Amino acid sequence: MTHKTAPQSQHLTPFVIATIYLILAALWEWLSGQLIIAIQSSQPQLQPYLGYQDWVFIALMALVIYALIRYNNNDLINVAERYRRGRELLHAILDSASNTFIYVKDLKGRYLLTSRGYEKLFDMTREEITGKTVYDLFPKDIADQSDLHDQQVIAQKQPLEFQESCSLADGLHTHVSCKFPLFDEQGECNAVCGIASDITDRIAIEERLREREELMRLTWENAHIGITTVDTEGRILTANPSYCKLMGYSEEELKNLSVADLTHPDDLPQTIKFRDALIKGEINRFEQEKRNLRKDGAIVYSNIHVAVVKDKEGNPIMTLCEGQDITQRKKTEEQLQKSEEILRLTLENSSIGISTGSLEGRLLSANARLCEILGYPHDELMRTRILDFIHPEQREAYGVKRQRLIEGEVDKLDEELQYVRKDGKIVTGHFRAGLVRDNQGNPLMVVGEIEDITQRKVMEEQLRRNEKLFRLTLKHAPIAIAVLDTEDRFISANPRLCEILGYTEEELFHMRHIHVVHPDDHYDIAELNKDITEDEFDGQGRYVQKDGGIIIGHIRSVLVRDDDGNPYIWVVQFEDITERLATDARLKESEELLRKTLDHAPIAIATVDLYDQFTSANPSLCEIIGYNEAELLKMQHLDIIHPEDRYDMPPGGQFSNIDVSSIYDATRRYVRKDGEIINAHIREAWILDANDQPQMYVAEFEDITESLATEAQLKQSEGLLRQTLTHAPIAIATLGLDDYFLSANPCLCEIVGYSEEELLQMKQREIIHPDDWYETLTEEEIENFDTGTIFDAQRRYIRKDGTVITAHARAACIVDANNKVQMFVVEFEDITERLAMEEKLRKGEQLFRLTLDNAPIGISLAYLTGKYININPAYCKLLGYTKEELLSMSHLDITHPDDQAETRARSKSIKEGKSKGYEIEKRYVRKDGEIITCHTSVNVIEGMEDDSIIVVGHLLDISARKRGEQEMQRMRTYLKNIIDSMPSVLVGVDLDGHITEWNTAAKQITGVEPDSALGKGFSDLLPHLKSQMEQVHQAIKSGEPVKTEKLMTERDGETLYSDVMVYPLVANGAVGAVVRVDDVTATVRIQEMMVQTEKMLSVGGLAAGMAHEINNPLGTILQGCQNIMRRLSLDLPKNREVAEELQFDLEKGHQYFETRGILKFLNLIQEAGSRAAKIVSDMLAFSRRSELHFLPVNLAEMLDTTVELASSDYDLKKKYDFKQVTIERDYDPTLESVECDKTEIEQVVLNLIKNAAQAMAENATSDKPPKILLRIVPEPDYARIEVIDNGPGMDEQTRNRVFEPFFTTKEVGVGTGLGLSVSYFIITDQHGGKLNVESTPGEGTRFIIRLPLHRRKEEE
Amino acid sequence: MNISVLVVDDEAAMRENLSAYLEDEGMDVTTIESGERAVEHIKEGHRYDICIMDMRLPAMDGNTAIMLLHKLLPDLQFMVHTGSTLYSLPMELRKIGITDDQVFMKPLNDMQVLTQTINRLLAETRETDQ
Questions:
Q1: In B, which residues are within 8 Å of A1118 by CB distance?
Q2: Helix %, strand %, coil % for chain A, to 5?
Q3: Residues in chain B closer than 8 A to A1162 (CB atoms)
Q4: How far is B90 from chain A (nearest CA, A)?
C-alpha cells in the first residue's frame, strides 16, 4: 500500500514554468549574442542565419512549455478523484478481511488507516480512531509491546511477524500480527502497516489436541493391560509396554511377529476364526481366554478383548486388542482344585465322622468314619433317616434342636448324643453341627460331625466314679487323711483331719504340713518334702490345732510316685493318739498302781478262773500261803482251802446261775504249804466279760488283822481295771512269756473270731499269718529285756473263720516287782479295712492320675477364679506352656482377649449357682502367640464340702476342624454356585432315587426350592423323567455315562424334548448319579419344522409344474358340465328354440334326465372336478410366496370374523352343524394387533375350527357337548393363538403325521388332506411362526399357532 | 348388434365349451387355436369387442399375442384365461390397461363370471367413448 506524498508538491505551477522559460530564453539570447559577436568578429556576412536559429529555438521552447503545462493540468484534475477512489478501495479491502485487523500507523504511532474491526472493537468511528495512537486505545503494557514491534519494523525496514496478546472484553486474545514498513518515493520509511489475525481459538484447539494426544499416549504407555494393534493380516503394528512385558518381547521384536506366532497352537484356530469374523464385520468385537507364547517359551494365560478399527468407509484397517494376564488366576484355579481334592480326601479320611444332612433329616453325605462309627455300610447309611441313628430317648429332643438350628435360632449344635449302631450297640458321640446356607442365606443343609467318645465317656465315667469314691472315702473315712505335695504342702485334707486340726480344708490348702507340727517336735515329724529319701515315713509328735490346742498325732506317710518314678504326692494318714496315749497312760498308771499295790500291799490277792484255777497271785498271798506264785498258778483255789471250808464247785465251770454281781465275802481257813492253817477273810468278786458273763474272779485274802478299808479299796480298784479292760474298745490281750494268751478282751475276740476261752488255749503265734511269724523270745532275751520297749508291728492274723486280717499290734511288757518281765500286754488294732481302703484309694488315685496324664484332651482342675490346681500334659502341650508355668497362671491369662468376657460371665453364673458348667468354643493364645480354637467344657466338681468351687475343664483343639469347616463351606458354596449357574438342569440322585443335588435350573423348571427338593424322590419331583431311574442304575453299574437323546416328555399338556445325560457317581463310596437335563424342545421343534417345510416345498414345486396340465382338462370337465346342465335346463330360451325346431319335448326330456339321475351325475362330475381343482390350488399354495400382504391385524376381531365364516359353513353333506358347537373365547386384552397376512391366517384358523367341528361332530356324544375354546395369549416373542376342542383327540401316530400333505383321517372325499399342511406352511414358512398340535385321545386336541411379534427384516 | 368375442385357446374342448356358453348368452363367438392365427385373423380385417386369450399356447404365447393384437386393435378388450394359478399379470399388460379382475384361473367353476366381466368391460368402454 504505497502512500503517495501530497500531489501539490509534485506538479509544476504555471508560474514556475514561465520563469523557467524566461531564464532559458535569456540564456539562449545571451549565448546567441556571444556567438554572433564571435562570428561577427570572424565572418560578419553570416548575420541573417543567426536570426533563423532564434526563431526555431523559440518555437521549440514554446512547444515544450505547452506540453508541460498541458500535462500538469491533467494531473491536477484527476489526482483528487483517484485519491478518493483508492482510499475507498483500500477500505473495502481492509474491511473484507474478517477477524483480521489491518491498520497503518505513521512513524509516530498515529493511526492513519484502520479496518472496520477497530470500530467494533473500540466502539468508535474510523474517523475518530484516525490520528489516535496505540496508547490512546490500549492499556499501556499492550501499547508498549506494539510500539516496540513497530520500532523494530521501522529500524529493520522489513516485514516482521509478532505474536501479540491483548485482553478484550471476552478474555485474553492472541493475535499474530504481521507488520511491515511503507516507503515513500525516496525509499524512506514513512509508515508501518500491520495485519493482525486473532488466533485465540486456534490456539485453544491446538492445546486441546495436544492434551488429548498426551492423554492417549499416557494411557497407551501406562495401561496396566497389554494393548496391541494388529493389521488385518494378523501382523502386530504396535504394542504398549504392558503387552511387551507380558510377552517378554520388545516392541520392535513384536512388530516382526504375527498373532499366530504368539498364540498357543491349540488356541490358534479359535483366534483365527474370531478374527476372520471380526474383519468380515460379522461381529464387532470378541473376547477370548487364550494361551500366549512368551519369548522365553512360557505360556501366559490371558483374557483378550479384540475390537476392530475401521476407516471412514467402514473398511477394517486394524484390530485393537487388549489382553489381561490371567495366568495367576489360572494357577489359583488349579490350586483351588487341588485343595478341594485334598479337602475331600481329608474329609473322607477324617477321624471324625462327618455328614451332611438335608433339612428334612436325610443324610446327604457321610464319610467313611461315620459309617465306621455307626457300623453301617455307606449306602445303607445313606438310606436311613438321621433320627433313626439317634437313641430313642434323645430323638425327640434332638429333632427339636435340629429344627431350631435350621430355623436359625441357634448357630450350631454341640452336644453329646447316643447313637444306636446297626448292631444295636450304643455309642456316645460328640455331635457338632452347623447350618449351611446358600447364597441367598436360605438354609441348605446341616453339616454335622460326630466324634466317637464312647470310650472317653466310659473312661470319664469311670474316672468320675473313682474320683467320687475316692473323695467320699476320704471324706467319710474315720481316719484323718491328707494328701501333700512334694513340698510338704497340703493338697487335700479330709473332713476328719480338718476336724482334728481345727482348720478348714481351704485353710489347709497349700499350708505346709510342718506348720501344724509343734515346734519342739520338728525333729520327730519331718517335713515331707523331696529331701526325704524313704518312700514311707512314720512318726509321732505333737500337733498344734488352730485354736492353739495341742494334740499328739501319729502319722504314717507314703510317697506316691508318678509313672516316671518321680515323687508325686504324699498320702498321709493322721491319727490323733492324744486320747489313746492318755488312756494308755492312765491304764498303765492304774495297772502299775494296782500291781504295786498288789505286790506291795499286805493284802494277798489272786485271780481265779472259772475252773477255779489260779491265774495270778500276788507276793502277799504267796507269803501268806507259803507257795510261790508259780506254784499257786498251777493249783486250784480249792487246793489251798481248808477241807472243811471248801465249797462246792460247779462242774465244768458253769457259773451261769450264780449271782455275778455279788461279792462273795467269807472267812475261811487256808492250808499253807507248810501245813499251817491260817484264817483269812476272803472276798471274791467276779470279773465279767462284755456279755456280763463271769470270766474269773478275784480273790482277796486278808489277814484277819488287816483293815477292811484297804481290802475294799483294793477290790474296787481291781474291778475298775477289769471293767476297763473288758469294755475297752481297743483289743487288748495279755500274753505270757510262752506266747500263750493270758487274757483277751471282748474286742479282741471279736476281731479274731475266737472266744476268750479258745484264745486262752492258744498261742498268739497260732493266729498269726505264717508269713508274719516272729521269733519267740529266748529266756535270755527275756532276761535282758528292756522293759520300756514297746513292740509295734503290723501283722496279718488269721481269724477263726479263715479270713485274713491285718492288725497293728503294740505290745508292752508287764514286769513284776523285781522288774522282771512277767507278761506282755498287747494291743491290737484291726487295720485291714484301713489298709484296704488305702490300697483302694491309692489305686483309684493312680487310675485317675493316669487317665488325666494320658487323656488326649487337655484337662485342667482349677478354682473358679481361674487359678489352676492341676493340669494334664495334653493341656500343657495344647497351650505350649510347661505345667509349672501354667500353675502360676490363671485360666484367663491364656484366654483370647475377645473371649474373656464370656468366660467371666460363665464363671459368674457358676459362682451364683445358676449353672453347673458350660461348653463353649473359645480361643486361646498359646505361649508362642498362636491363636487356637478349642472346644472347652467346664464342669463343677460336686461333693466339695467347703465353699471353694473347683472346676474341671476339658479342652479340645478344634482349630484345624474350624478351618476345615470354613474351607469346606467355602468350597461347597463355590461349587454350588458353579452348579447353580449352569443352564442345564442338574439333579443328583442316589440309588434309591432320592434327590441329593438340585440346582437353580432344576428349581426353575419345577418351581421346587432346592431345600425342599433334597431327599425327595426323583420320580416325585420330576415325574416326566421317571423312566430315567433305569438309566441311573445302568450308569452306576457300567460306570459309563448314559445318554438319552430327545427324550419325549409331557408337561402341562405340552410335549417337551430333553437330552438327558446320566453320569454315574461312584465317588467316596457314595453311589449315585448326576442327571443332566437339557431342554431341547426348541431344537427338536425346529428340526421337525424344517422337515415339514422341506416336504411342503417339494410338494409346492411339483404342484407348480402339474397345475397347468391338470387345470386345463379340469376346466374342460367343469365347463363342459356347466354347458350340459345349462343346455338341459328349461330356463334358457335357446334351449326351447332348438327343441321346438327339433320338435323335442324339452319338458319331457328334462323329466327323463331328472328321473334317470343324469343331472345328479353331472353334479357329481362337477363336484369331483371342483375338488380336484381345490387340491391343485392348495398344492400351489406351497410355492406361493409373493402375494402376502403383511398388515397389523387385530387377532380378536380376526378370530371372531373367522367364527362367523365358519358358522355360515353349515354343510349337511359334511354331516356337522356348526351351530351345535359352543364357542368360548379367552382373549388376552393386552395383545392388540400382530402384523400378518390376514387372509392367510383366517384361512388357517378357519381350517382349524372346521377340522375341530368336524372331528367333534363325527364323535358326538350326549354327555360332552362340542366346545371350541379360542385363546389369545401373549408370549415374549410371539402371539399365541390356540384352538382347543374337546373332541376325540388323536393318538400319537396321527399327531405326528397330521401336518403331512395328503394325510387325512377323514373318509375319502371329505377333505383334500392338504388343509393342515397348507396351514402349517402358511404359519411356519410364510409367517416365520410355529404351528404345534397337542392332543390326548378322548380328551381333545389343541392347535397352537405362534405368530412372531417382530418379523425379521428379510421376511418383510 | 351382438357382442363379438374372439376366443384363443389351443385346447379344442376349451374353445368348444367357451363358445357354447357365450353363444348361449347371446354373443357371437369366434375361436382360434393359436396366437399367430389370431394375429393373422385380425390383420385380415376381423373386428371383435372382446378377446379371451389363453396364456400358455404353443409357439407364440398369449402375452405376445395380446401385445400384437393390441397394437392392431387398440380398442379391443382382453380377458386373460390361464391354467396356472401362479399367474400374475405382467407389467406390459398392465400398461395397456388390463387389470387383475380381467384374469381368470382355470378351471372356472361357473362361467357366469365371464358374462359379467364382458358386460362390465363393454359398459366401461361405452362410458369412456361418451
A1: 107-109
A2: 45, 30, 25
A3: none
A4: 14
- Mutation target vs A (from B14, B17, B81; most A CBs, 10 A cutoff): B17
Distances (CA, A) of A1316 to A1094, A1173, B112: 15, 17, 31
Q: From the CA of A1152, how many Å to the nearest CA of chain B?
A: 22
Q: Please tell me the distance in Å from A1171's CA to the nearest CA on chain B.
A: 11
* Exposure of A395 in the CB half-sphere (CA atoms within 13 A): 11
CA distance linking residue A288 with residue A268, whole number of Å? 11
Q: What is the pLDDT of residue A5?
A: 40
pLDDT tens for residues A1210-1258?
A: 554 455 667 778 888 988 888 878 888 888 888 888 888 888 888 887 7
Q: How many CB atoms lie within 10 A of CB A1167?
A: 14
Cα–Cα distances in angstroms (integers) from residue A300 to residues A244, A249, A262, A645, in the given order: 12, 13, 10, 138
Q: Which residue of B has its CA nearest to A1167?
A: B109
- Per residue in A940-983, pLDDT (tens digit) is 877 665 667 777 787 888 888 788 888 888 887 887 788 788 77
Q: How far is CA A231 from the centre of its chain?
A: 48
Measured between CA atoms, the residue of chain A closest to residue B21 is A1123
Contact residues, chain A, for B20 at CB < 8 Å: 1123, 1127
From B97's Cα to the closest Cα of chain A, the distance in A is 21
Is A242 in contact with A322 (CB distance < 8 Å)?
no
pTM of this prediction exceeds 0.90: no
Chain B: closest CA distance from residue A1077 (Å): 47
Question: Does the predicted interface ipTM exceed a cut of 0.90?
Answer: no
Position A991, amino acid: L
Nearest CA in chain A to B26: A1134
Mean pLDDT of chain A: 78
Instruction: Kindly give, in sequence order, each residue whose CB lies less than 8 Å from that of residue A1140, ignoring residues fewer than 6 positions away.
Output: none
Q: What is the pLDDT of residues A1085-1113, one digit of tens each?
A: 777 766 666 666 666 666 666 777 788 88
CB A1261 within 8 A of CB A1286: no
A604-609 sheet: strands from edge to edge: A614-617, A604-609, A694-703, A677-688, A664-671
- Output the nine-digit C-alpha cell for A246: 507380558
Crossing angle for the helix pair B62-72 and B35-43, to the nearest 10 degrees: 10
Question: What is the total residue count of chain B?
Answer: 130
| Residues, chain A | 1356
Residue A1356 predicted with pLDDT over 60 = no
Question: Is there a contact between A1169 and B110 if contact means CB atoms under 8 Å apart?
Answer: no
- Which of B85, B88, B111 lies closest to A1119 in CB terms? B111
Q: Give the residue ranges of DSSP H helices in A860-1009.
A: 873-879, 883-887, 891-894, 897-911, 959-981, 1000-1006
Residue A456 predicted with pLDDT over 90: no
Q: Which amino acid is at A369?
A: R
Which chain B residue has the Cα nearest residue A1183?
A: B86
Chain A residues 1167-1186 with a CB less than 8 Å from chain B: 1169-1170, 1173, 1176-1177, 1180, 1183-1184, 1186
Residue with cell 516485514: A159
Q: Which residue has the cell 384374469?
A: B103
Written as one letter, the residue type at A1353 is: K
Tens-place pLDDT, residues A69-96: 777 666 665 666 777 777 777 777 666 6
Judged on CB neighbours under 10 Å (0-12, 13-18, 19+), A880 is middle
pLDDT tens-digit profile of A833-861? Answer: 877 888 887 887 777 777 777 777 788 88
Cβ–Cβ gap A1115/B84 under 8 Å: no
Q: How crowded is residue A561: how many other Cβ atoms within 10 Å of its Cβ?
A: 12
Q: To which residue does cell 504295786 refer?
A: A596
